[in-house]
Design a protein that fits this description.
The chain has eight helices and eight strands. By secondary structure, it is an alpha/beta fold. It has a single domain, classed as TIM Barrel (Alpha-Beta Barrel), CATH 3.20.20.70. The chain has an eight-stranded parallel beta sheet. Strand 6, helix 5 and strand 7 form a beta-alpha-beta unit. Helix 2 packs parallel to helix 3. The chain is globular and about 40 Å long. The termini are close together. Bound molecules: D-xylitol-5-phosphate and zinc ion.
Length: about 220
């Protein structure tokens, strides 16, 4: 049974001091750092690229780099992110490219791989890939921006995926991303999620270590 994993998102950190923001995630005791990569095309916003990951590694960051590619052509950037120090690379199901080949390529480069579903995308859209991933990410906001309201209507999709995971014996992480705070994390956990991206709520928390501990204190799924 996977233990709960908090994955604070650097998107909500200080972009003039990204290494310091990532250090704050490590100092709070979180094992994962969620890195949101946006291309201004698949989503209407831009963030940072592989050079930022490489620079964070050079700065000494040892966190697990949970890399969320919000790109129309993610297959073109897999090598760059793997080389830059990504531990896990997640790609969206919505754009048209060879998803299975891209997931296999991520693994061949020594990284774990994940598949991501937008709010409008049903669980069935990724069903054929569930034997080939290390993580399934259910977006609980429309991707593109931090600080949006949590979509509780995504919980049946989380529950459906968790049911398939149990019935079919999969071992992937089931992650949620968007609007997750110490209240909504409980709904996600109850629905079956075990890995929790939190941007705004983590960086705004008065006691970030307590924030991390509270998530880690949820029961294993
Ligand atoms: C949304 C990103 C999220 C974002 C979550 O496009 O994928 O990872 O950082 O931010 P919060 O936690 O602020 O909703
Ligand atoms: Zn994300």
């Amino acid at each position: 049974m996977p233990a709960p994993i908090p994955a604070p998102s650097l998107l909500a950190g200080d972009h003039a001091h990204l290494a310091a923001s990532a250090q704050a995630v490590a100092a709070a005791g979180a094992p994962w750092l969620h890195l949101d990569i946006m291309d201004g095309h698949f989503v209407p916003n831009l963030t940072f690229g592989p050079e930022t990951l490489a620079a964070l590694r050079r700065a000494g960051l040892k966190l697990f780099f949970d890399t969320h590619l919000m790109l129309s052509e993610p297959h073109r950037y897999i090598e760059a992110f793997a080389k830059a120090g990504a531990d896990l690379i997640s790609i969206h199901i919505e754009p048209a490219y060879d998803h299975a080949a891209t997931l296999a390529r991520i693994r061949a480069l020594g990284c774990q791989c994940g598949i991501v579903l937008n709010p409008a995308t049903p669980a069935t859209a990724v069903e054929h890939l569930l034997g080939a991933v290390d993580l399934v990410l259910v977006m609980t906001v429309q991707p593109g921006f931090g600080g949006q309201s949590f979509r509780a209507d995504m919980m049946p999709k989380v529950a459906q995926l968790d049911q398939w995971r149990r019935e079919r014996g999969y071992a992937w992480h089931l992650e949620v991303d968007g609007g997750v705070d110490l209240r909504t994390v409980r709904d996600c956990h109850a629905a079956g999620a075990d890995t929790f991206v939190a941007g705004t709520s983590f960086f705004k928390a008065v006691d970030r270590a307590a924030f991390v501990r509270e998530i880690q204190g949820l029961a294993p799924r």
